[in-house]
Amino acid sequence: LQAKMSKRVQARRLEGTEKNIWVEFVKLATTYSTVNLGQGFPDFPPPDFLREAFERILSGGNHMLHQYTRGFGHPPLVKILAQFFGKLLGRELDPMTNVMVTVGAYQALFCCFQAFVDEGDEVIIIEPFFDCYEPMVKMAGGTPVFVPLRPKAPKDGKLMSSADWQLDPAELASKFSKQTKAIVLNSPNNPLGKVFSRQELELIADLCVKHDVLCISDEVYEWLVYDRKEHIRIASLQGMWDRTVMIGSAGKTFSATGWKVGWTVGPNRLLQHLRTMHQNSVYHCATIAQDAVAQGFQRELELYGKPDSYFIQLPKELQQKRDWLVRSLDAVGMKPVVPEGTYFLVADISEFKSHVPDVPDSDEPYDSRFAKWMVKNKGLAAIPLSAFYCEAHKNNYSHFIRFCFAKEEATLKAASDILQKWKQEKSTP
User: Fold this and answer.
1) Which residues contact 223 (CB under 8 A, 6 or more apart)?
2) What are the pLDDT digits (tens) for 79-115?
3) In a domain, 1, yes or no
């Protein structure tokens, strides 16, 4: 009877998706770490204007802001998002049909895969990828198809840049077939920090148009771009508005990841299906948080392109933090891949392999064992790059780990101190 019941209740679409790198590494970081550069969240506060907006709303007289608002997005928020992104895309957006608010970008992604992906559909995922894409595709009944960004060695002894990781055009084209329903684009990319160039985006766009494929464009780090690089929205390219869902995040935009306010922007013909998914799952997002984010965007629209804009100030501050961590890692022999955007950089750990004992015949990628050893023995938490690859490819790039530099200066200095001490131990006979 037990065996029969167990077969009856098994969730076939969940099989193989139960493993999650964050469960294990968050527990390790909580238990052992002195400095946590693993998870992607800031340890500094959101901007004063956003917190003040939240406090005003919380203490104000409009008690209805403690109740349900419009399920597909608080009216003030969808209106300002339509206005803001309409300006960026150069088109008029209807706040009621071209914008939907979600419980963070995470729910926006889940809605996309559930709404568009059916049994037998293929979804192209560019590696390395934010790890939820693969299980979400499988849970929708689809088949992930992977295409890698391949690193090219930099010239003249320079540090590698995330721009040196590139798609092979022929390899990418070979992944498109009659079964291809969608491609997932993440620019700026987590974990590499790669900002896709116009030429790379046009390559993807041309293939999407040719094969009539949707583009799920994860743009949560759209404002976190460095060295005067430009974030180009693929929906702005020819033929792409009608086949693209753009996904954004107030958590990454305003350094408030715990608020869990995200959104989708796109044509009504696509967003109508997302509304059905949203209505019949979470239904609603926190009203007060939405109202505060609306006020934040109203401020940023008025300051757009001006020095006081948070969207200009934040990347300047984060670029300095990035450069600090790049110098610290390079000084001790971990070779950083300099990111063009995001909170993250990956570093080559090859020179530190002598510190971590090898495990013969282990199926676990080396970078995963290294990251576990490092947090337990050095108190420094990071994430193995192999976590951002499919099972078949995890050992292909297993000599890199990912660090988050969206941290207070004191946190980054503490990390630097750990690395310096480690370097001294490494050089002591």
Assistant:
1) 231, 252, 253, 311, 314, 315
2) 999 999 999 999 999 999 999 999 999 999 999 999 9
3) no
Nearest residue to 211 (alpha-carbon basis) of 183, 177, 174: 177
Q: Is residue 156 part of a domain?
A: yes
- Pair 119, 141: CB distance under 8 Å: yes
Please state the domain count of the chain.
2
Q: Is 228 in the same domain as 341?
A: no
Taking residues 301-307, report their average pLDDT: 97
Burial bucket for residue 283 (CB in 10 Å: 0-12, 13-18, 19+): exposed
Which domain CATH number covers 156? 3.40.640.10
Span 172-200, average pLDDT: 98
Contact 116, 264 (CB under 8 A): no
Q: For 311-343, write each residue's pLDDT tens digit.
A: 999 999 999 999 999 999 999 999 999 999 999
- Predicted structure pTM score: 0.94
Average pLDDT over residues 167-195: 98
3-state secondary structure of 402: strand
User: Whole-angstrom Cα distance, residue 340 to residue 329?
Assistant: 17
271 close to 97: Cβ distance less than 8 angstroms:
yes
- Beta bridge partner(s), residue 125: 146, 184
Radius of gyration (Cα) for the chain, nearest Å?
22
The verdict on whether omega for the bond into residue 188 sits within 30 degrees of 0, i.e. cis, is yes
Q: Which domain holds residue 334?
A: 13-46+310-422
DSSP string, 101-153: EESHHHHHHHHHHHHH--TT-EEEEEES--TTHHHHHHHTT-EEEEEE-EE-P
Token pair recorded at residue 379: 């108190």
DSSP state of 237: S
Contact criterion met (CB below 8 Å) for 129 and 103: no
In angstroms, the CA 140 to CA 119 distance is 8
Query: In angstroms, rounded to a whole number, what is the distance separating the alpha carbons of residues 380 and 419?
Result: 9
Of the three residues 254, 278, 303, the one that is the final residue of a domain is: 303
Mean pLDDT, the chain, integer: 93
Q: What is the CATH number of the domain that holds 379?
A: 3.90.1150.10
Domain boundary among 286, 303, 320: 303
Report percent pLDDT > 70 for the chain.
Answer: 96
